[in-house]
Design brief:
The structure is a single chain. The protein is mainly β. The termini are far apart.
């Protein structure tokens, strides 16, 4: 059993920055690939970014490339999403997810554990 808790969301103006954190407890953290997804009202869940379990290779959705950076700190059992140059269309609930020995899968149904989400709102 793995528990994931997101934090760091909030209200920010267009062009601003936020850093989301996802703290994990339970199973051995370093054995999991980690990802961020988001879902806006009336929209389907969307892949944002992922980082694999072993060497830390990363994957990004085209919509966030060059603006967002995913990273992990295995000693702290935490994955981060640094979000820069935020746009109103980034407004959504952001979820972290974990996949046992994951290699950066973009499909949400491949992930084993999910957090409860944190709201990010970007004003114009």
């Amino acid at each position: 059993q793995v528990q994931l808790v997101e934090s760091g969301g909030g209200l920010v103006q267009s062009g601003g920055s936020l850093r989301l954190s996802c703290a994990a407890s339970g199973r051995t953290f370093e054995n999991y690939g980690l990802a961020w997804f988001r879902q806006a009202p009336g929209k389907e869940r969307e892949f944002v970014s992922a980082i694999n379990w072993n060497v830390g290779g990363t994957v990004y959705a085209d919509s966030v490339k060059g603006r967002f950076t995913i990273s992990r700190d295995n000693a702290k059992n935490t994955v981060y999403l640094q979000m820069n140059s935020l746009k109103p269309e980034d407004t959504a609930v952001y979820y972290c997810a974990a996949q046992y020995y994951g290699m950066g899968d973009k499909a949400g149904d491949e992930y084993d554990y999910w957090g409860q989400g944190t709201q990010v709102t970007v004003s114009s």
